[in-house]
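note to self — DONT lose this again. spent like an hour looking for the file last time. sequence + predicted structure for the chain T wanted, 142 res
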Amino acid sequence: MKVIFALLFLFSCVDQNIKTPEGVLKKYVEGRFKGKKVESLKDYVSDNYFESQQSIRDTKYDDLDYIKKKRFKFISKNCSEVNCKITYYISYASYEGKTKDTDTDTKKIATLIPSGETWVIDSIDHIKTFHDINQKIEVIGN
């Protein structure tokens, strides 16, 4: 009986976290890095953001199977009743086959807006990105 109560409590906490701005953003980012397309994560984004992401449909950026997340961390949060801006850091590696191609560190700002009892992502803006390319770059010139 105690085990059932503990499991119910755990699952209620998990559902509650999805309703917070941080929970929504984390669920979206984790879903993308697990290979889910934006359209399958539509519950976590606004119509405005969903439409802006349609330009990547059927490109290599629509399906992120070649990318493996290494680190995800919240840096800061500034919320009001109208929106919530969360600055976060992601580190990931991209692969070509089984060979690591690039390591990337990026800092972004996500703007979330309230939607009913939860929040949805309305925009994601890049602050800075660093790429460590593991291949030699061939320079053509004089």
